[in-house]
Amino acid sequence: MRRKDREMNKEFAFEIIDKSAYGIVSMVARDSQPYAIPLSIVREKETLYFHSAKEGKKVDIFVSVPNVVITFVGQVKVPDIFSLEELEIMATDGQKAKLLINHTFTTEYESAIVSGKIKLVDNEVEKTQALRLICEKYTPDKMAYFPLAIEASLNRTNVYKVLINEFSAKRKKYDTNGEEMKWGR
């Protein structure tokens, strides 16, 4: 990571993963063509789970090249630090142009990237638990119907897990005074 001052720890990475609506799973097919797909992903400790159809392009890739990188993006926004009056003053002062550019024409962001190997979950107990975790994240108010859903779809659904080998997390954020919050803040 080039900007070490924006690097965050594992706990921060896990927070981003847990609150992200989806993760982008990136892989390389046997023909060396890149392929990426957004998936609904849930984390349990240092393992990620997602479900899939039993066949398709990503399933074929997982069998032949099981290495993946998954990117999660948390909150992203343009900072609103300065009033219009302050911006007008900065626009007329060449000394303050850098402040204007660095604090106005930028984004605050948070992200996490993990890498690991895909593995098909073939143990029915683990598969059911992974599907339960996915449903608790995405449809928590429908859990009363989970047993029926499992009965109807368990044999028609693949569940995959990724054991996290590596992770990185990064954040750019400003405090209320317009100062960038570096590591530990």
CATH superfamily of the largest domain: Electron Transport, Fmn-binding Protein, Chain A
Helix content: 25-40%
Work out the oligomeric state of the chains in this entry: single chain
Q: Total helix count?
A: 6
Overall shape: elongated
Q: Assign the CATH architecture of the largest domain.
A: Roll
Distance between the termini: 19 Å
Mean pLDDT equals 90
Tell me the CATH topology of the largest domain. Pnp Oxidase, Chain A
Tell me the number of strands. Answer: 8
Beta fraction: 25-35%
What brief labels describe this structure?
185 residues, Pnp Oxidase, Chain A, 2 domains, eight-stranded antiparallel beta sheet, 6 helices
Descriptive account of the structure:
With 185 residues, this protein is of the alpha+beta class. The protein folds into two domains: 4-74 and 109-172, Pnp Oxidase, Chain A (Roll), CATH 2.30.110.10; 80-106, no CATH class. It is built from six helices and eight strands. Strands 1, 2, 3, 4, 5, 6, 7 and 8 form an eight-stranded antiparallel sheet that branches. The radius of gyration is 21 Å and the shape is elongated. It starts with 6 loop residues before the first strand and ends in a 13-residue tail after the last strand.
Quick recap of the structure?
The protein is α+β, with helices and mostly antiparallel strands and 185 residues long. Helix content is 31%, strand content 31%.
